[in-house]
Every structure is written in structure tokens, then in C-alpha cells.
Amino acid sequence: MMEKEILVAGGTGDLGGRIIKALMKNGASVRALVRPGADPVVVELLRSSGAKIVEAKLKDKEALVAACAGASCLVSALAGLREVIVDTQSLLLDAAVAAGIPRFIPSDYSTDFTQLPEGENRNFDLRKEFMRMLDEADIKATSIFNGAFSELLNYNIPFLDHKNKTVAYWEKSDWRVDFTSMNDTAAFTAMAALDDDAPRFLRIASFQVSAKEMAAASGYELKDRGTLADLDAYNKIERAAHPEGENELYAKWQQSQYMHSMFSAHNEVLDNERYPGLVWSKLAEYLR
Prior knowledge:
The protein is of the alpha/beta class and 288 residues long. The protein is built from 9 helices and 13 strands. The protein has helices spanning 14-25, 40-49, 61-68, 82-99, 122-136, 182-193, 211-218, 228-241, 252-262; strands at residues 5-9, 29-34, 52-55, 73-76, 103-105, 140-141, 143-145, 148-149, 166-169, 176-180, 201-203, 207-210, 221-224.
């Protein structure tokens, strides 16, 4: 069987770099698509790890198509607002289709936003907009929904606030939230990129934990923060009051929108067993 060549966009980022490592660990040949002017230290690290560096201006369609030629899957790990999630990914999609790449994995690593209505999460609305373009394109797509990254549990988010020793919830103390570590997400994404039969959606979680379970495991106080309707109304007020946040990837009101999403959608059925051999991280690792 021929070695598969995977093109990764966003490889200079944290998740993208992990995906590249996981791909090479599984025997794939990897091309890292980088823009001129990308951090030379990071680019050299990717090169020394065995990735082929392909430099191309994103608005140079001819160069992008050439970068795509011969790849079996394009994996996007880009992070950003409209300019990135909609505009840049659209350029990548057009080039992938023109080059005949059969598969595309978009940068959808998040809560399953297909379960959420428009207007509740700005960043998810952008992903939905690109998803509509992707589904109309002549290419096979696979989105990976991993919930929240487990690493967030180290950052005093309301769901696990180490500083105040509280665990907050909205409306449902027994609602189980999906968490997946970045390494687990990367390892699963790598396997999906090499899987020609991967379906349109794959849903994973390193672990699922409710606020009630989190409070019991951490010994912190359980706090009822009200209803999801109240949180949604608060988020809309805060967004209107802070328009500067429209230019920030993680504005405070956007962070609060993520909390709303975490308690509004989760993965009922997991695809964790699709690729045998993956070892999933555990909640205890984030409570030490």
C-alpha cells in the first residue's frame, strides 16, 4: 500500500503541530502548509521532525493548488475569526477541489455545533457558515467534535474554578460535559485523516463529567448559576455592550458563550472505539 500524504494547514499552531506528530507516528508522509513569514523557529521544528514544508501565499490559488497536488487528505487546524475560519478555509477548499484531493477535515474541533441554533455562539456560527460551503463542494468531509479541550480545566473556568474552589453549572447539575485532551484529539484526527471510510461526523471525548460529578471528584462547592435562558440573555447583552470583542477570538462574552454551549449540547454516542489502540486521558490527570 502506498504511503499516504496528508497536507496540514495550521501546523505551526499547538493542535496542528500535535496532529503532524500523530500522523508521522502512524506512518504518514506529512506536508505542512505555511505562509511566507511564519515563525522560522516553529517551521524549522516541523522540518526537523520530518514534515515537508510547503510555503504558499493563501491568496495565490496556483501556489495553493500546487501545494495540494497528490495529497490524500487536507487537515485544517486553523484558528481565528471570519478571515480564517470562513475566508482562508474557503481558499483551501477551492484549492483542494481543484487539485483533486479526495478528503477534507475542517477546523471544527469543538462542541457539536450542529445541535445548536444560530446566534448563541459567534465562533460556532462561523464554522456553520463554512460547513455549508464544504457540504456543497465536490469533496468528502469529516468533522471531528471533541467537546472542550481538557486543558481548559487548568484555567479557572467557571466549570472548575480552582481559585474559588467552585464548580458552576447552568440548569443541569447532572448534564455530562465532553472533554478531550489536545493530544487525544490530535491522535484521533490523524487516524481519521488516514481513514478513507471516515463518515461526515465523528464524536469523541476523553471523558464526560457532570458538574455534580466534578464537585464530588474535586471536593469543590457546587454552584447553581441559573438557567441557560438567563445565560444566553446575559451573553447577548455583554456582546452588544462590548463590540470590540468582535475582533477578539476569545472575548469575555465569547468565553461565556462557550459555557452556554457546553451545557446545551454533548455527544450522546462516542466514536472512541473506531480506531483501536488509542489510549484516552482521564479526568484525574487534570485534578492532581
